[in-house]
Structure formats: C-alpha cells, structure tokens
Design brief:
Layout lengths: L26 E7 L15 E4 L2 H6 L13 E8 L6 E6 L6 E7 L7 H14 L1 H4 L2 E5 L2 E5 L14 E5 L3 E8 L5 H15 L4 E7 L7 H9 L6 E5 L8 H16 L5 E5 L22 E4 L1 E3 L3 H9 L6 H10 L23 E3 L10 H9 L2 E2 L1 E2 L8 E2 L15 H18 L17 H20 L5 E6 L5 H4 L4 E6 L21
Helix pairs in contact: 4-7, 4-8, 5-6, 10-11
C-alpha cells in the first residue's frame, strides 16, 4: 500500500449559513429529564425551555459532554503486605475497551510500611492522570481509585486488578456510587438531530421527571406558540415503560390539537429491564395515533457507549426526530432511497434500547414488533446503510392514521385551511331568495380551502383534494357554514411484488 503525494484536501460542509427551509414543517421539540440541581447554566427552574438552531447553540447553553451531572464511581485496592525490595505490582482499572494500565510500582528500601507503599503507588497513578484520567488517594495503605468522567455506572460492581511479581499482596473492594450523566445523553440526541437535519430548529425543554400527565408536552408547545410539528420525549431513566405513558402523551397531543397547534410525538421509553423486546406490550390497541414508540439504538458507536455507561435505554430518538424533520410531511422515513440513518459509524451497528443486538432478533419477531406498532432500525440485504421500519403510530392497524405521515399531512392541511379561512369568520353571507347560498358565495368559500390544498398538491404532499360546500344548508338557523374537505394522500410503496422467470419470448408491448 503506497502513501499519496502530499496535498491539501477540502471537505465541503453543509449548514454553516443556517439557511432555513421555506415552510415550518421542520420545527421540532425535544423534552428531556434532568434533575433541577443539574440544569445546564443556560436553563433555570423558572426558565426551562430554549430554542436552538445548531449544536453549537445548544453547547453554549451548557448542554455539552462535560459530565456536570455525573457522580464518579470509587473502588479500593488495599496493600496488605509490602513484599521485598525489587517486587513489582502493576495496577489495572476497568475500562470500556478492556483493562487500563495505570502504571507499575517497584518496591524500594524507602517504603517500609503499607502506607508508604500505597503512597508511592498513588504518586505513579496520579502522574499519569492526564493520560488515563484515573486518580487515586491513600489512607493508611487503602488506595481509593476514582473513575474518569464519562464511565457512569459502568465500573459499579467491578474491581481493580493487579499483576504482582514477588510477595506484595493486596485486596480489592468493588467500585460503587457511579451515577451516569443524563446531559451526555441529551447532547448525543441533539447532535444526532442536527446530523440528520443540519438546518433544524429545536425547542428544548428540561424537566426533573415525568409530569403526572406529561403536561410538559403542552408547556413546550405553548412556549413555541404552536410552532412545533414533531416532539421527541426522552425517558427519565427511572420509570419503566407502560402503555399508559403513551395514552397520556396522546392526551397532550389531543389537547394542543384542540388549540389549533397540532403535532406528532416520538417517545423513547425506558425498557432496559425488559429481557427481550419480544415481550413488549402491543401498542396497536392504544388508539394513540399521534404517538410513535421508538425502541432502536446504536450498538457500535457513541450511542452504544452511552448505553454501557448508563445501563438505561438510550434509543436513536434524536436521529429519528432529525429524519422526521428532514422529510416532507407526506414521506415515510422508511424510504430506502432517501433516508439512510447511518453515517457509516453511528447507527451502523444497531440494536434495541434494552441492549439486545439486532442480529439476535428473528425475522418473525421483527414482524411482530412492527405489527405491535413499534419503531426501530433494520438492515437490508443488497444495500449498505441502516434504515427505519414504517413510521408506526400506537393505534389500530386499520386506522387511517396508522403512520406518522398520514397524521402530518392532515395536520398541515388543517393548519393551512384554517389560516386561509379565518378571515371569513363572522363575515356576511349573502343568500338567494330561497335561503340557499348563491354560486359565487359557494365558490368563494371553496376557494379558501382549495387554495391551501392546491399548495400542498403542488409541493407533492397530496395527490388531490377539494373543498365541498353544500349550497342548500340553513345558514340563518345556526349562523354556521358547514364544509367538507376531501384529501387524497400520496401513496407509499411499502411493498413491491415482482414476478420473475424465464419465457420463450418477451411479451409484446
């Protein structure tokens, strides 16, 4: 293998100018749960919601990987015999990628007690802290080792180890007390959102725990003045998944829908205690058509590392929100030719948010998870990359709103038709002598709706649509105009059946 000639190369980056799309379909929200004591410096208990347009802006608010809300695990190695001069002990600490060598101590004549031996070992360890990030202290021969930031719960239950040459002896006490950073997980999801949606707009709401009825969903949408089209809700690390969580989120979606602020929601539940995803409950009976339940996550890069240091469901929630924000309202995120979820590293190796590998789940179990209305990642033979299954919502298989795009199209039509029709509220309605609506009045009313639908048709978000106004309705009796809006959606080719075989001659066109 030869080296290339010296040169300068350029990689053109996208998104630096922060140009925004022409419509608001990309505007998103993200709710995470962080203890009040650990709120980033850009947030406060009375200032919980911020809007950002880039990962850098989120970083400036204090949402960065500095582990401010992490408690580092500690463990003991106690020297019980000092051995003889020339004896050695090499100290190893548990690491995510194998044991970490913290250095080798060689016994000299000046170390005559366990306290002095331990002090010499501590000095060697701390001299290398800038490299391996481990630190140590000594108390009468008992060495307390403190894990680096970022390991979270991973060391808990593990112990220091050593290789001894000679008669030095030592005992160990397992690590404990490690608490993982939730802010690291939040930062990961935000970075994944902007990876899939470089010119995004994201409202971030931070709360201590699930509200009784997930009222924080309404609070964030209200703060955004109804601008959010899709909301992601991260789990709180402590509350195991129950389908009641989905129905409560749906109730909040219904609430904002009734306020003319419709949106869809992605929920990534805590399922780390679920031994097999095949035992997850059936979401297709919930009648929660505006909520999708996400159970996939990375299993080979940063997402998997976060799983290992938290032992909680991480999911690919940020990436899912990003691709939903990137797609047209009528598009399915399962579109193979359009939406590869992996950049070659993140989400290249995949699994589920209970820790199971994708490759350990049978084809039949994947079909069952899809029928149970879960959203996950999958691999396909014959093409590189990682792709989504259908954008299922937690409702009946037969529902008109089983998929996210059907909800998004309807919600956009409602927003546009309402905006066009609002000026007509309380307007005078001229009637013919028989009390019916004249043709020009019907046409005026229909035009208000059809103009909005026409824009969606032009943008490839609807196949067709029309506004119908019955001229014979009795307006005087109720001061009410009744209209019907018919929407013909864009179809989605989820299944392509191809007949193939040999023939004696080709069929004539």
């Amino acid at each position: 293998m030869s080296l290339p000639l010296p040169q300068i190369t350029f990689e053109v980056q996208q998104g630096g100018l922060g140009r925004r799309p022409a419509n608001d379909d990309y505007i998103s929200g993200f709710i995470a749960y962080v203890a009040n004591a650990n709120l980033p410096h850009g947030f406060a208990t009375n200032d919980r919601i911020k809007r950002v347009f880039s990962l850098q802006e989120a970083d400036a608010l204090g949402i960065r990987q500095v582990n401010a809300d992490e408690t580092r695990a500690t463990g003991l190695l106690t020297i019980t015999a000092i051995g003889t001069n020339g004896d050695t002990i090499t100290i190893f600490a548990p690491g995510l990628n194998g044991n970490v060598n913290l250095g080798t101590y060689t016994k000299t004549a000046s170390e005559t007690t366990v306290t002095l031996v331990a002090a010499a070992i501590v000095a060697i360890v701390n001299a290398g802290t800038y490299i391996h990030q481990w630190s140590a202290t000594n108390a009468a021969g008992a060495i307390t080792f403190t894990a680096p930031f970022g390991l979270g719960v991973y060391p808990n239950g593990l112990s220091m180890s050593s290789t001894i040459v000679g008669t030095i002896t030592a005992t160990t006490t397992a690590f404990s007390g490690g608490v993982a950073s939730r802010l690291n997980v939040l930062y990961y999801h935000i970075s994944e959102y902007f990876r899939l949606r470089p010119n995004g707009q994201l409202y971030i709401g931070l709360y201590a725990a699930y509200g009784t009825n997930f009222e924080e969903v309404t609070l964030v949408q209200t703060f955004a003045n109804g601008a959010i089209r899709q909301m992601a809700i991260m789990n709180d690390f402590s509350t195991a998944y129950a389908t009641s969580q989905v129905t409560k989120i749906q109730a909040r979606c219904d609430e904002v829908f009734g306020q003319y602020r419709p949106m869809v929601a992605l929920f990534a539940p805590e399922i780390s205690g679920t031994a097999s995803v095949s035992s997850l409950p059936n979401n297709s009976t919930l009648d929660s058509e505006m909520v999708s339940v996400v159970i996939s996550q990375d299993r080979g890069a940063r997402g998997h590392e976060l799983w290992r240091v938290t032992q909680k469901s991480i999911s690919d929630l940020g990436a899912k929100l990003g691709v939903l924000s990137q797609s047209s309202v009528s598009q399915s995120w399962a579109w193979v030719g359009q939406f590869n979820m992996s950049n070659g590293t993140e989400l290249d190796t995949i699994g589920f948010s209970n820790g199971e590998a994708y490759t350990s789940i049978s084809a039949g179990e994947l079909e069952s998870l899809n029928a149970y209305a879960y959203c996950f990642l999958r691999k396909l033979e014959g093409i590189t990359g990682t792709y989504n299954n259908q954008p299922n919502t937690a409702t009946l298989l037969t529902s008109d709103f089983r998929f996210l795009y059907l909800n998004r199209v309807l919600q956009k039509a409602i927003r546009l038709v309402r905006a066009n029709t609002l000026p007509a509220v309380s307007s005078p309605i001229v009637l013919k002598a028989d009390g019916t609506l004249p043709d020009w009045q019907v046409e005026n009313l229909q035009t208000l709706g059809d103009t909005a639908l026409g824009q969606m048709i032009s943008d490839g978000e609807l196949s067709a649509g029309q506004t119908i106004v019955n001229p014979s309705q009795n307006v005087l009796a109720t001061n009410t105009i009744s209209e019907a809006i018919e929407l013909l959606p864009i179809g989605v080719a989820d299944y392509i059946n191809i007949e193939i075989g040999y023939v004696s001659q080709l069929t004539q066109a």
